[in-house]
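Case study 2.
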Amino acid sequence: MKKVSIVAFLSLFLLSGCGLIPLSAAEQSYVDDCKKVQANFKDYIKIQNEIDKGVGRDDPRYDWQTWSGSSYLVTNAGQASRDTASSFIKAKFPWIYSATENYFKNMSRADFLEESPGLWYFDYESKVNEDFFRMLAAGTDFEITSDSLEKLEDKFYSIEVDEVFALYAPSDRFQNCDGALGLKDEESFDSLSNDYGLSSEGVNVSTVLVVSIGLWGCETFGVGYTQYGTGWDKCAKNDYVSDPSDYPTSFEPTPEEIEILEDRRLEAEREANEPSNSDANSNATPWQGCTSLGATVQTESYGTLTCKLVLLNRVKAFVWMR
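Prediction:
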């Protein structure tokens, strides 16, 4: 009798492992919802790839990628450039611009100009992240909540796509959507989260958010925050174009400066011709200080780290986070 029980248990274990035992209603629902998330994620990845391939080319739709460092850059971009960037972001990242509009819609110009976009974004970044996962979960029964995302961030320093949807696995049969759909390697949510998630190198969500704040300020108030002088400036009508012919003769470079510029040009040329070391990793660690908001580095121990704005003892600071 004991041997029969053991054989029955082993048979049940093998059948379950081979997937021959039918899925429960909850497990089947989870599989179906994971397929919908996968389809939504693929649509978002297409946007990321489009932008990543367009960066560096002469296409004004992607100019905003270089505006993230300062509202000053958005302010001086020129009306035509801002209109192009605004239309593109509203079409491709509607949840980000919508969150921006909702956050600032009742704010006066004076209040808006009290902080730079790089600091404003910190106040509702969590809402944007929440909407990002709601976008991926569209058409499913997965209910994205701020509490669940905060718990993940406290545990892992970051919020990754695979970890979020693992929260809804109904049984031990599947640990996450990768297990439910049999996804492995480059096709897995685990892998795609690093390449196309919130802090991906292709399109960093925080970059889109900061630029959206600057665009909203120009569209609503006609001004943008600056870190000098009056603290704000009118949004330019035309793109700023530097014309060397307008420089005073006193600004012409000296022979010594010409020599320095030529040395720099040759050095840049040498560096461009040298093979890049794509395997190099940074020594940065989570919570270590950083300087460029939205910048990313690759580390051996912690994966991809992103420079984010956080509160440390009630003081805002830039630190590396997963």
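The first helix runs from residue 2 to 17.
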